[in-house]
Every structure is written in structure tokens, then in C-alpha cells.
Amino acid sequence: MKRVEMLKTIAGLLCLFLTACTVGTTRQETAVLQTTVQPIDAATDTPTILTLPPPTAATTPTPAATAEAGSEPLIRYFRASVTKAATGDVVVIGSDDPWPPHEKAAPGDTVVLEWETAGAISAALTFSREVPVDTTGTFTYETKLDQYGCVPCSLIATNEKGQAEIATIFIQFPCPTPLFFSSEWDPGCCGFCANYGCPETAIASDAAEQHFERGTMVWVKEQETIYVLFEDVPPGSELASRLFADEWDPSQPDHDPSLVPPDGLYQPVRGFGLVWRQNPEVRERLGWAVDQETAFVTTEQRVPSVGRHSSTYIRALDGNVWHLQSIGFGSGWSKIPVD
What is the CATH number of domain 48-173? Predict the structure, then answer.
């Protein structure tokens, strides 16, 4: 396997490993969404992002970019200049900017990539495929009017030994369907192994919410799902939240009379009660209910993605928004305040 191919494989595996190992040690307070969706032109089966320029003469590396043969490849800089079609403004971002380096763009904007390497004998830009380029140079393309989602632009510089260095910049385009609670709220989709999915259509549903000593339960009728959000996250646990199918029906008992709560606390009933009684972990981690369940009407919207990464947004009883994350092999949640 070539060195470049090995680096790509290792980067993908490292992404899943890092997210799986870091989620769940504390309650998740921010969204870190991670996977890739790239728009495809159905007629050509090529990414709509990429418009190759006419062939040009090879760029001669500058003296600063040359290095002793056999030395490790070095990317001196890799940056993107985004020219806004609507205003003509130019925004520049480099791969050495605070991680993740990304810039928002609109369909129709022009993106110019610039780079300089040292010690490399070949280089390539990658979108959904590799495009061979000079070891120092520029690359220009016009974005398409139907462009959406996050697009990673990577530069790979390789020396004669097959050793490679990679730098990546993300360009983020608006999704066709905004999140239901705020068109301005940014889920932070760009990042290492980021989630490039766009929100599905939001649904309205009857719902219920109940609060416990150490967490919350939320029922969404249209999804036939009960979400359990734990306040405590034991060391080594990757589960800050869980979801269960709502399997209770009126033919079943709505509570267990042998379970008597302390004064001022409550035993959950119906669907919440069934999940609470049948799952010792849920019962132990949540504790007793501190109030009765309350019915209301909610909105739920999902942001699916490839692999083990996704987000679900649910309007909470108090009007704010529950944000549930599936990250790697674990899960997290946060509550987004809404004005």
C-alpha cells in the first residue's frame, strides 16, 4: 500500500478511535459532528464542487520551496481565498488557523487554493477524488449554484520515499433546510472527521417530558421513541444518553405498586415507567422522578450522516432545545438556549 493511501486509512481509523474514546467522560456541551456527504452531479457522477481550470504550464517551485532530495516533505502553507459573489469581498483562511480551519461560502463564490511545499516531488489536491498538481502553485474553481454541505479540501505532498504530509481546509455551504429553531445557529459541522450532513425536514409531534433526580426522559410520539438523558456520566462510560422504543400500551400496568418512592418523589408511569422498571441501569442512574410527566407538543429534526455520527434536535418542555449526539461508539447531549 502506498504511503498516501496508508495515511488516509490511518486518518479515518484515528477519527473513529478518538471520538469513541473521548465522548461520555463528561456530559456533552457542544456539538462535534463528524462524517462526509458530498453532492453528486447525477449526469456525470462527479462532485458538483469541482470545475477544473484549463490546462496551464507547470509552476516552477520557488527557491524557498526547494529542499535536499530525500528530506521529509513539508507544507510551508496551504490557504484558501473565498471571493464572495454577492459582494466581491475576499476572505482568506489557512491550514494553520485554529482547528478546524474552515470558511463559510455561498453557491457561486470563487475559491482559490494556494500552497507551497518543500522536499516534495509530487502533490495532489483531494475533494472526492485526487487531482495531481504542482508542488507549489494555485488552483481555482467556481462553486455550483446547487452546492451545499461541508467540503474538505486537502493537499497531499509526497517525497521520493513515499512519505507524505497532509493539510486540510474545509469550505462550508448552507444547507437547503435550516434547523427549525434558528437559521443562524451553527452546529459546527466542519472539523476533523466532521459531520457534513444537512438537516432533514422537521416534524411536529405530541410529546411528554419528565425530570428525575439525575436526568430527564422525553417521549416523542411520531418517532415512537423514549429518550433518556443522564446527568451522571460514570468514568469510562460512553453513554450520556440512550433511546428506547416506546413499547407500552394500555393493556399493560402503568406502574408497579410494590415500588414505593420516598416522600416528594414519584414512580414514572406508562411508557416512561416501563423503560425505567425494565432497565436497572436506567433506574439506578436516573433515580426517582421529581415531578409528574407533562404532555406538550414538540418539534424534532434529525441531521443524519455516514457512519456512527449524527444529531437529533428536540424542542424541550421549557422551549429550549435538546441536542442529542451519536458520536463514535458513544453518545452525548446538551441543551441549547433559545431566545
Answer: 2.60.40.10
